[in-house]
Amino acid sequence: MDKLLITGGSRLSGDITISGAKNAALPILCAGLLTADTVQLSNVPHLQDVSTMTKLLRQMGLRIEQDGERMSLNGAAIDKCEAPYELVKTMRAAILVLGPLVARFGEAKVSLPGGCAIGSRPVDQHIKGLQAMGAEITIEAGYIHAKAKRLKGTRIVTDMITVTGTENLLMAAALAEGETVLENAAREPEVTDLANLLVAMGANISGIGTDRLVVQGVDKLHGASHTVIADRIETGTFLCAVAAAGGDVTLKNTRSDFLDVALDKLREAGAILTSGADWIRVQMAARPKAVSFRTTEYPGFPTDMQAQFMAMNCIADGSSHVTETIFENRFMHVQELNRLGASIDIDGHTAIVRGVEKLVGAPVMATDLRASASLVIAALAAQGETLIDRIYHLDRGYDRMEAKLSAVGANIQRIK
Questions:
Q1: Residues 307, 311: Cα–Cα separation, whole Å
Q2: What percent of the chain has pLDDT over 70?
Q3: What are phi and psi of 6, to 5 degrees?
Q4: H helices within 18-105, ranges in order?
Q5: pTM beyond cutoff 0.85
Q6: Which residues line the annotated binding site?
Q7: What's the CA gap between 166 and 185, in Å, rounded?
Q8: pLDDT class for 119, splitting at 50, 70, 90?
Q9: How far is CA 251 from each of CA 261, 279, 282, rounded to the nearest angstrom?
Q10: Is 116 a known active-site residue?
């Protein structure tokens, strides 16, 4: 298994180009199942999760051609409406094939997602929504079996805000008969990106970007071209890295409007931020100031940035409270950060972080995708060498992170 060896203490300076968003690319790839025509995508990130999703979709008969960050999808020859456990267990987003398959082919057999280290993330809202649209659903031997002659539009109020639930039901509603209203819909930019692609494919959706999506079903969708939005979590991760290690870095091919809350917290920590239409510059010359926050649904503070900000808080001046409200098991990075000399205590859903003057390198282990990013940030700010094991978690959601950091002066290398 690959590891990362990082020698901390280098200031970061230069440019980093941000990749397309993982959490937009995955549902967008599934939207290729909704039409027999060709969907042309650009800015698709090179990630393990994207490879897993394309492998799954190819097994179903979706034709996929790839050239760098461009991809063309053609759904004319789909012949298998099944997502097997082997692929779903490594990536929960595979549940996103359920809505499109039932909507276009009238049936689907999708494995229940395997465990994800950061919490249970149930799919009951997906199932309840499809049942409300007339699908017959049974669960046998770990698989969701769904059938419907044609889905019927209806009003769906989810019990909680669910990003993948909103995306699944939105794709299903695009081909349903009549009007579907999704109340309490997720407002994340990645949901909006999917909705914009569906509209380009001929879907009739209003309320995009709000918590109430109204979809007038159409008989069929056609091909379209679409550019995946920039990854706001990758953007935020590199901003935190500069805030923790110090330096002057410009992030390109990204935007600032989908990260407002995190940017405000970085300014509070002492970072100087300037931005344009497609770039953000971060300058950090002093030790960061501690910042407290609580995670919540968009447009609040993203749970996917919690670990990275906590890493910055470890070496900040002062104490901070970090409260996690989205996932019940998302503090697994705390014991690893403490191995580097951090002072963090957990009290229920809140971590109390007392900033220390310095971290010292040590061997640590990544436990999930964003936790591994927090360990990279802490290692960049630490004295001496840190060896991070199990970085396959990192590769699921970051495109060659070590190459991007090396290019701005980090002392980081991948060890086979």
A1: 6
A2: 98
A3: -125, 130
A4: 22-30, 48-59, 85-88, 98-105
A5: yes
A6: 22-23, 92, 121-125, 304, 326
A7: 6
A8: low
A9: 18, 5, 8
A10: yes
Does the CA dihedral 367-308-187-160 come out positive or negative? positive
Q: Around Cβ 413, how many Cβ atoms within 10 Å?
A: 12
Which one-letter amino acid corresponds to residue 228?
V
- CATH code for the structural domain at 3-19+230-415: 3.65.10.10
- Look-up of token digits 């992170």: 401
> Is beta strand 385-389 parallel, antiparallel or unpaired with respect to 3-7?
antiparallel
Fold (CATH) for 22-227: UDP-n-acetylglucosamine1-carboxyvinyl-transferase; Chain (3.65.10)
Specify the pLDDT at position 90: 85
E strands, 217-335, in order: 224-227, 247-252, 272-275, 279-284, 293-294, 319-323
Q: Which two tokens stand for residue 285?
A: 């010359």
Binding site listing for phosphoenolpyruvate: 22-23
Of 30, 116, 240, 314, catalytic:
116
Question: Residue 115: its pLDDT value, please?
Answer: 54
| Domain limits, CATH 3.65.10.10, in the chain | 3-19+230-415, 22-227
Q: What is the pLDDT of residue 114?
A: 65
